[in-house]
Amino acid sequence: MKVSDIYTQLNNARAAHKVWVARAEAMVEGMPIEKEQIPLLHTDCVFGKWYYGEGQAVRNLPAYATIEKPHQALHSTYFKIFKCLFDEPDVSMFGKLLGKQKKAKEEQLTEAKTLIVHLRKQSDDICETLDALEDQIRRAVQAQQKARQKNDAVAADINKQLNQTIDDLSKL
Question: 0.85 cut: is pTM over it?
Fold first, then answer.
């Protein structure tokens, strides 16, 4: 896989992650979003599919391993938001008659709005780690290029010495 492909995949995964977060925010604000557009499981979103699929190409870099737990936690927070928005509040029949269901639903929405703030922070942390991962990829590529240049220089030096030795031997 080419380095440019890795950068492209990483940026596509980051963009998909940001769209996922934006959809979650829109849903909390009452915009009509299909529940299926925001997968609950961390392995089902576009970012998760990249992380557990093609992203494995950079799994040896330190930042890669630090993404998994925050990404799982982000989906856990989203699951709580999802429950707040789509679960019916647990109100007794008497409570329903007194109009407590509406108040309970409002409390659930307030909780969802509190959780979305936490979700944004988790997302920002993941994006910072992705920036670190991108930097680690860049540094790894630079180190690899320097090693190749050094190897090329050593090989050229050895070749030069070998040619000199052959020339010296031919003069005997």
Answer: no
